[in-house]
Amino acid sequence: MDITILGIESSCDDTSAAIYKNGYICSNKIANQELHKKYGGVVPELASRAHQQNIIPVVEQAIKEADIKTDEISAVAFTRGPGLMGALLVGTSFAKGFSISKNIPLIEVNHLQAHILSLFIQRDGESKKVPEFPFLCLLVSGGHTQIVVLKDYLDMEIIGQTIDDAAGEAFDKCAKVMGLPYPGGPYIDKLAKEGDPHAFSFNKPVIKDLDFSFSGLKTSFLYFLRDQMSVDDKFIEKNKNDICASIQNTIIDILMDKLVKATKKTGIKEIAIAGGVSANSGLKNALIQHGEKYSWNVYIPELQYSTDNAGMIAITGYYKYLAHKFASLNVSPFARHKM
Ligand code: KG4
Ligand code: ZN
Fold it and tell me: I need a labelling partner for 46 at 20 to 30 A (CA). Which of 24, 206, 232, 302 fits?
């Protein structure tokens, strides 16, 4: 019997729908909300309204592109959290309505778990190299920074995490003080390509075990720019490539130091990255280089599955369907972390 999952993602500012059938991705449609750019960050109320407008067209497109009939869908999986409550409610309500009207099971998905399972997404006919269990995943997004041990698709343990800001937040906040648009991570990545990563140095925090901290870095970056600008008010303009390369390099060093520590502690050599920041070219290169140095097998999600997307929700829904892990209709979203 075919297993066809409709995945719905609406945790932040991307409305997305995807179809995952019998172990392969068939479609992954994303409607980005450009409207937040001019506010320098996501405005929750505007995000919820845009999800309301986008959700039906995006689902229709995903079904059309997958070339399936609505009646073929076996279950609907949706992001339950973490995320913005109003935004999550749109996807949750849609999924519940869809489940009732089609009389199919409802599956709730943890957004962070889904980011990690994005590593397994492939199309029919593709034979991608995927991690073997157990593997370590550095999950780096706009809201989260964690090191997770995956024992199986649905069995994961967090062994380290940020005690304040996430890595993506560090990128975005540093970009903001440089006057770059939101979200700043991709802009820093682009500008860093033409810069010297050792032009400027920033203090790295000393945090115990496998935990991270990024709030001090953001503050020292702010003071550094303020001091330099008081001497030369064109400092950012003149040095933007070097500044971006240096701050990016510092963030990557902090992440990689802990990842090395985690591999030593666990003895695991199957190493992956996931989440929006895994799209960063410097981080990908650092992972590949560390892989060569320490004989790790390394895994990086495809670009379209690194930032928020419903493909990752649909694949997680697929594994939960196989495990008969269904949600009841009175399930409610959660805004804060729970894994
Ligand atoms: O996973 P994601 O799409 O949403 C969350 O679940 O948070 O991650 C978004 C984060 C943002 O902070 C964004 O700046 C960052 O991922 N990001 C990047 C890059 N692409 C996205 N950061 C650095 N370099 C990139 N190329
Ligand atoms: Zn995400």
Answer: 302
Question: pLDDT value at position 336?
Answer: 84
DSSP string covering 253-297: HHHHHHHHHHHHHH---EEEEESGGGG-HHHHHHHHHHHHHHT-E
* Structure confidence at residue 310 (pLDDT): 98
93 Cα to the center of ligand 1, angstroms: 26
Give dist(CA 129, CA 126) in Å, integer: 10
**Cα(210)–Cα(320) distance, rounded to whole angstroms?**
29
pTM over 0.90? The answer is yes
Residue 36 has a pLDDT of 81
Measured from CB, residues less than 6 Å from any atom of ligand 1 are 12, 141-143, 168, 171-172, 183-186, 189, 275-277, 279-280, 307-308
**CA 76 to ligand 1 centroid distance, Å:** 26
Which atom of ligand 1 has the smallest separation from the CA of 306? 1
Domain ranges of the chain: 4-121+305-322, 135-300
Burial class (CB in 10 A: 0-12, 13-18, 19+), 230: exposed
Q: Which of 138, 307, 337 to mutate to test the pocket of ligand 1 (most atoms within 8 A of CB)?
A: 307
| Below-50 pLDDT ranges, the chain | none
Do residues 20 and 10 lie in contact, with contact meaning Cβ atoms separated by under 8 Å? no
What atom of ligand 1 comes closest to residue 183's alpha carbon?
A: 14
Of the CATH numbers 3.90.10.10, 3.30.420.40, 3.40.50.720, 3.40.720.10, which one belongs to the domain with range 4-121+305-322? 3.30.420.40
- Are the beta carbons of 142 and 168 closer than 8 angstroms? yes
- Cite the beta strand spans of the chain per DSSP E: 4-9, 14-21, 24-32, 75-81, 106-110, 135-140, 145-152, 155-161, 270-274, 297-299
